[in-house]
Amino acid sequence: MQIAGSIITLIGSVFLFLGALGIFRMPDVFNRIQAGTKATTLGTLLFLIGITIGHTDVVPHLKIVILILFILFTNPLSSHALARAAHHIKTPLAKETVRDDLAEDEKREDREGSLE
User: To 10 degrees, what angle do helices 101-115 and 61-88 make?
Assistant: First the structure.
């Protein structure tokens, strides 16, 4: 079991590294938030699961389950809040960005609100 836990922990570490690399490589804030959130959520979950499997005598399982649930709920919510705040203060998009759905929704809401 210790070898399986070590392999899962290593895979989680690779995802964490790729998430950090994505933060440096992506062209704008919104892509950085997405790269960081997806990779770090999966990487942290795999890392914690690997530790739980590999070190059953040391790590209390209930604490790991609570940490996993906390990460699953808070990571996506916090990244969504950061992205909405960045969009609200008009953070510029990368020039390669093809579509901005949130801006299109806001324009539609403004038009519908002005018609009433």
Answer: 60
